[in-house]
Specification:
Blueprint: E1 6-8, H1 13-22, E2 26-29, H2 35-40, E3 48-51, E4 60-63, E5 66-70, H3 75-80, H4 82-87, H5 89-96, H6 101-107, H7 110-116, H8 123-129, E6 133-138, E7 141-146, H9 147-150, E8 151-153, E9 156-157, E10 164-171, E11 177-183, E12 190-198, E13 204-209, E14 216-218, H10 226-233, H11 245-267
Parallel strand pairs: 1-3, 2-3
Antiparallel strand pairs: 4-5, 5-10, 6-7, 6-10, 8-9, 11-12, 12-13, 13-14
Length: 276
């Protein structure tokens, strides 16, 4: 059971920010798929649970040429939303593949996963791949943080304790993309993920998740360059109960090359130099 704790359900962003400042040890809950099990297992403590479901952060809309996704939008909504499917299909693909089945997809939120920042989550790598911006509100007002700067370590982000993640925005375009990952089983978390995007000029960016504490970005000019670039970038491979660091280092190039080849299929290009 969760130890005795106050429950708060603010109905506005301002009210939620006030609670963050007033409570000595607040815990923010979007979907609760990460935080609530931790509280049950007493792996973390809290003076109050701040439930964001009444704040109104669960919409998806176009705003100034970008797709703005509320922090409490669930994976199921992302996977089914027409705007996401046409303007950010990589996110729709990611959401439809989230580990945990229908219950987790219906409950878990993109904002909650971003703030939890576990290396094995699909979300950080995809947000970095799409050059997403995270909109944070706090006592000092609003600020926008690029995803590449938001994820600072394993379960560490640039969000201050008195700030609330309100929305995530990505460019509303249809750039070529690919998403590949390796899992031990359908029900396990990823060991390696690769989100690939191609620019109008044809250059490719591969963003790797789950292989290090924060997402890694590579800009290979050919498939043959991937192993060397990745070996140089992957200084400290992630190590957890799913896979040791050495295993992640060994499999990451194969998943990255798979994403590269998927992009070749989507864009209709072939740079040759395949060796298998």
């Amino acid at each position: 059971m969760i130890p005795p704790v106050r429950y708060r359900a603010p109905e506005s962003i301002a009210a939620a920010i006030t609670l963050l400042s007033d409570e000595p040890e607040p815990v923010i809950v979007g979907g609760g798929t990460w935080v609530l099990p931790q509280l049950h297992r007493r792996e973390r403590s809290a003076s109050a649970i701040i439930d964001l479901r009444r704040v109104g952060l669960d919409d998806v809309r176009l705003a100034e040429g970008r797709l703005r996704i509320g922090a409490t939008v669930t994976y199921s909504t992302l996977a089914a939303d027409e705007l996401v499917a046409t303007r950010a299909p990589l996110l729709a693909r990611m959401a439809a593949q989230i580990t945990g089945g229908v219950q987790v997809r219906n409950q878990g939120t993109i904002g909650g996963s971003a703030c939890y920042a576990t290396p094995s989550s699909d979300v950080p790598g995809c947000l970095v791949a799409l050059d997403a911006e995270l909109e944070l509100h706090g006592p000092g007002g609003a600020r926008h943080v690029p995803a590449a700067d938001f994820f600072t370590g394993a379960q560490e982000t640039a969000r201050n304790d008195d700030e609330l993640l309100v929305a995530i925005s990505v460019a509303a375009d249809s750039r070529p993309w690919a998403y590949e990952k390796l899992k031990l089983s359908e029900s396990s978390w990823p060991i390696a993920t690769v989100a690939g995007t191609a620019s109008p000029g044809g250059s490719v960016t591969l963003t790797l998740g789950a292989v290090s504490a924060t997402p890694l970005r590579l800009k290979p000019r050919s498939e043959a360059e991937i192993p060397e670039l990745l070996d140089a970038a992957l200084v400290a491979p992630w190590d957890d109960v799913l896979a040791p660091a050495d295993y992640r280092r060994r499999v990451a190039p194969a998943i990255a090359r798979r994403a590269w080849r998927r992009l070749e299929t989507v864009t209709g290009t072939d740079n040759g130099d395949h060796d298998d």
